[in-house]
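Because showing beats explaining, we let one protein speak, sequence and backbone structure tokens together, and leave readers to judge.
___
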Amino acid sequence: MHIDLTNRTALITGATGQLGRVMARTLANCGANVAVHYNSNSARASELMDEIHGYGRRAAIFQADITSLEEIVAMKDQIKEQLGSVDIVVANAVAQYQWTTILEQAPEDYASQFDTCVMQSVYLAKAFAPDMIAQKWGRFVGINTECVMQNFPSQSAYVAGKRGMDGVYRVLAKEIGEHQITVNQVAPGWTISDRDRENHTEVSESYQLSVPLKRRGTDQEIANAVAFLASDLASFITGAYLPVSGGNVMPAI
């Protein structure tokens, strides 16, 4: 048994980011062709495209503002022309900002999180679900966070945006499930990425004390969960919020 995404086309938004780049490589290594979305880092997107070509997969880069329905629809048309219809959508892009208390957080930070978590999810569904419905197969995988279960001080804007995303994904799972389209979320903990490896910041003893597995997860472990949910191995899983956090958060029944 192995994950086989041969002949599937996957879109990863924010594919040049710390987690996105590993998701793109992983899906390509599972056989998928990859639409590499980026916002501003065209050089990194081109490098990632070349890497995927090196795996023997098709890939192309696409720039779009994921808070704009018009730009997402235009990107969908471009992907379809170059790579074919998108079978797998991974909503990974999110706006970055400085975290602080509710009393000090700028109102525009809440708006940016709403736009990049909630509205991105809505726009991606509007753009890509119709082709999935027509072919009776599709995957939406949203990248959420363990923070939505922690609600720690300074997390309010991020938690608000990702909780809104959670609501959209749960409803979408019920609305399009009859077409054999699954809609799930992967919720990383505080994950080791290339940035940590470069800065030698992989270990955080204070954080790891609260994690049952006593370590931080890796970007590859997040990508593995995404690949699983994108595959036929997860064909009867939908509406799930899957923490990949070493047990740091545990949804209860």
